[in-house]
Amino acid sequence: MTTSAIWHPFTQHGLAEPIPLIERAEGAFLFGTDGRRWIDAISSWWVTTHGHCHPKIMAAIAEQAQRLDQLIFAGWTHEPAERLAAGLRALLPEALTRVFFSDSGSTSVEVALKMALGYWRNIGVDRHRIVVMEHSYHGDTIGAMSVGARGVFNQAYEPLLFDVATVPFPAEGREQATLDALEVACRAGAAAFIVEPLVLGAGGMLVYSPSVLAQMRAICTAHGVLFIADEVMTAWGRTGTLLACEQAGIVPDLLCLSKGLTGGAIPLAVTMASEAIWAAHYSADRSRMFFHSSSYTANPIACAAANANLAIWREEPVLERIATLTARQARRLEGLENVENPRLCGTIAAADLPGQAGYLADMAPRLMATAREAGVLLRPLGNTVYVMPPYCVDEAALDAVYAVISQF
Ligand SMILES: *Cc1c(COP(=O)(O)O)cnc(C)c1O
């Protein structure tokens, strides 16, 4: 183990915890070099939607890899990106007219923040304050951390993080405090509000109601504050609908998508923008262009994978699978007797294990180790355990996952 040069993310190597070596994956299963098999109960950190190595996505990647591997995207274009942009336009709300490519969820958030600030600057209005929700997570780059919850994971970088206005999490029964705080922040002339619709993922799978989401949207609209929906985790069916925003009947001004955009096969992200935001950058003046790019923007192979994902959404009964999984999750969650605050949002089931809370609580590594031994990949958030499997997971595998949790 210690002979590897790899520095893993969110891993304390000093604890010498085992790091399984995986050589193959299929559907909801991971296979190790030692012949062992694990159920991927967290979709490889929330990315795998339909299942690992979906044949249509793998075929699209292989086919595209024969044609065009990479292309500068400033001033040049290619068919997979054009097809993907058109496909996203057809699938997603009409008001999101423009598609900007990047390569990770964090970057899609940075892009959204920069577009929001660029919008206000280009229309000549001095607004720059960003409003965020308590317990949010938007990624690990400096801007994304700035709009996310502060805690042990970003304490060292705090001096670099910019100031934001924070509204409380709209826990059941305390929704009005959130709406009031948002009203105050918006009235003060904020540039944008960024939020994870319906479920705060890394914050502990905290669920709030579609009606609060709709009311928050309305407050932003009333004050002209741009509404940024970070659907990096919640999109692509995870919450029961293609977008979580659909359940509130709202459309954001900016929409961040990544993780399940390629079915979870290969990195890609998009930030979709309203026509007004595009129009604020559209000019014969080069100083008003959108100043952002990364080397692999709209990588053709990644776009081909995303096009295959869109085809799966069009051609396969994805929403039916999601409804089936949701019902199966609900039944098993109800059966858990050793947990508190059970919550379900579409395919995401979560609950708290009684005991010490907080990200560094020792509950998480102990449960992770127990699960790993039992052939299940789980990664609790502090004392919050959650099950977020690929949609193809079968009943037997789900039973095995819940058996681990119920016996902990
Ligand atoms: C995972 C996540 C991100 C960051 O995405 P990366 O691809 O890991 O950079 C941003 N926002 C939300 C809501 C996420 O769950």
UniProtKB/TrEMBL annotation:
Protein residues bound to substrate: W45, Y137, K259, S293, R379
**Which metal ions or organic cofactors does this protein require, according to UniProt?**
pyridoxal 5'-phosphate
The annotated pathway is: Cofactor biosynthesis; biotin biosynthesis; 7,8-diaminononanoate from 8-amino-7-oxononanoate (SAM route): step 1/1
Question: Molecular function terms in GO for this entry?
Answer: adenosylmethionine-8-amino-7-oxononanoate transaminase activity
Q: What class of enzyme is it?
A: transferase
Compartments, record wording: Cytoplasm
Q: CDD domains attached here?
A: OAT_like (cd00610)
User: What are the site positions for Participates in the substrate recognition with KAPA and in a stacking interaction with the adenine ring of SAM?
Assistant: F10
Q: Which residues carry this modification: N6-(pyridoxal phosphate)lysine?
A: K259
Q: What Enzyme Commission number does this protein have?
A: 2.6.1.62
Q: Where does pyridoxal 5'-phosphate bind?
A: G105, S106, D230, S294, S295
Pfam families named in the record: Aminotran_3 (PF00202)
Q: Which residues form a coiled coil?
A: none
Question: Would the keyword S-adenosyl-L-methionine turn up in this protein's UniProt record?
Answer: yes
SUPFAM superfamilies referenced in this protein's UniProt entry, alphabetically: PLP-dependent transferases
Subunit structure as annotated in this protein's UniProt entry: Homodimer.
Q: Which family is it part of?
A: Belongs to the class-III pyridoxal-phosphate-dependent aminotransferase family. BioA subfamily.
Q: What is the stated purpose of this protein?
A: Catalyzes the transfer of the alpha-amino group from S-adenosyl-L-methionine (SAM) to 7-keto-8-aminopelargonic acid (KAPA) to form 7,8-diaminopelargonic acid (DAPA). It is the only aminotransferase known to utilize SAM as an amino donor.
**What name appears for this protein in its UniProt entry?**
Adenosylmethionine-8-amino-7-oxononanoate aminotransferase
Q: Provide the gene name from the record.
A: bioA
